[in-house]
Predict the structure.
Amino acid sequence: MIQIKESLLQIKDAFEGQLNNVKTSSEAEAIRVRFLGKKGELTAVLRGMGTLSTEERPVVGQIANDVRSDMESKLQGVIHRIEAEENDRTLVEQKIDITLPGNAPPMGGRHPLYKVIDEICDIFMNLGYSIAEGPEIEFDSYAFERLRLPEGHPARDEQDTFYITDKILLRPQTSPVQVRVMEKTQPPIKIVCPGKVYRSDALDSTHSPIFHQIEGLFVDQHVTMGDLIGSLRLFARKLFGEDTKIRLRPHHFPFTEPSCEVDISCWGCGGTGCRICKNEGWIEVLGAGMVHPEVLKMSGIDPEIYSGFAFGIGVERTAMGRYGIEDIRLLFENDLRFLRQFR
């Protein structure tokens, strides 16, 4: 018993002597393993307690517990001191001068097409319109049949549509989102529908097989052609300037009656004639008309009570006019030298 007690005290003295010289966390861990680990010196001594008598074991056990507790407490205190010193050194070594100017990350900007879409939508939202969206893969019934373009109609041949199956296609430049809204909503309806449309066009400076369109629809009681003209006149002035004029030319769309093509006075010359408008003084920007009564009826709206107008704005052509862009391909080629001009 006396020998074990002496061994415990010797281990404690040796431990404290080693602990006073510890400088790093790794050194503290090495001392812990040497003295307090499963194969450490203290554990080795305690294995000899099996030779003690029943009366001696509790006494030596209490001494051993006191020694272990004291060693662990002192070791933990040293570890805390070392961690605090290491943290202080790290703060000094990694000090950052927060008064220096930072390195600002490069900032992007809205694409010119989406800037124009936002401007157009804002104009109509200020007139009480809401935004409606639809799928880019559409059913034939929404894209054509419910817009008075049944199978075999000659106008469908002019659409150059991308078909996926006989009844499913990429969204064409008709008005499928308007049909989707009318079948679920009773008037009054005031919506604009921005989105991509597809047409089998060869890519050149003024044509693209993929482009953006904003459909517009207003259905309510007593809506007239005069309401359409007033809305389009306000739109043109807000987007292209207060001196902008509009001109309506008779046209034919199967889903509107009467129908028209809408021109605006040239933004380059104000209507006197220039290279931009090919000396005509006018530039075509959209198609419009009064919603055909049969289109209303097919969507569950009574044409005896309600009437409405619809329009479709080509965003690319509008953006080209808005910013003086002469080649539509610049809008899709992702050339940063071009896009940075619009930040």
Remarks:
- The first helix runs from residue 2 to 19.
